[in-house]
Amino acid sequence: MSDNNDQKNSTLSNVQGQMRLSERIAAFIPGFHGYKEKEIRRESDRLVRNHLYMKLNIARTSVREINQKLADRRYLDVLTDMDRLSAKMDRITEKVNHASYGYSGFFDAVKVNEQNLDSMTAFDNKLIDNVNALTTEIDAFKADLTSGNTSNLKGHVDSVTDKLESLENTFDQRNEVMMGVS
Questions:
Q1: Residues with Cβ < 8 Å from 135, sequence gap 6 or more?
Q2: Which domain holds residue 61?
């Protein structure tokens, strides 16, 4: 988990380090500094979410490959579950891709403050852990299938499904964290 904290902190530091000289000077203007800090946090959140989306896209491709191998080898007892898993994987991957970046405009009824954005940054560490656990499970499933070990296909499908549902549940809590409700 500390590796994820380091990764998040380095992402925020990298975004802050990318500020142009004019942005650094403007950061000293009263009122502008808080605005710019929020933008930096939002950009950091966007970068993390894009990273999660890319990892999920790779995992989605692996699930499709597994599904194809199972269909080619006619393992009919798990194909229905794999089809459901593939559909769920598609839905959750796109949910991550299209979620908001923690932005609230000047006239929006619900404002996202800096403290909530910081909480969301910490919360994103949980998401990174969940995606890593999911991809590890998918890789193990793919390795077993490739090596010819088909004794636990149903167990692998169930385990990947559980990890994917855990990721979705965690991701669904994101809006509450962003608004400061949770």
A1: 55, 58, 59, 62
A2: 52-179
Establish how many alpha carbons lie within 13 A of residue 165's alpha carbon, considering only the half-sphere containing its beta carbon: 8
Phi and psi angles of residue 83, each rounded to the nearest 5 degrees, phi first: -65, -45
Q: What is the CATH number of the domain that holds 135?
A: 1.20.120
As for how many domains the chain has, the answer is 1
- Whether residue 115 is contained in a domain is answered as yes
pLDDT in tens, 21-80: 555 555 555 555 555 566 776 777 788 888 999 999 999 999 999 999 999 999 999 999
pLDDT bin (cut points 50, 70, 90) of residue 110 is very low
Torsions phi, psi for 159 (to 5 deg): -65, -45
Owner of token pair 């070990």: 149
pTM of the model: 0.72
**First-to-last C-alpha distance (Å) of the chain:** 20
Task: Let me know if 138 is exposed, middle or buried by CB neighbors in 10 A (0-12, 13-18, 19+).
Answer: buried
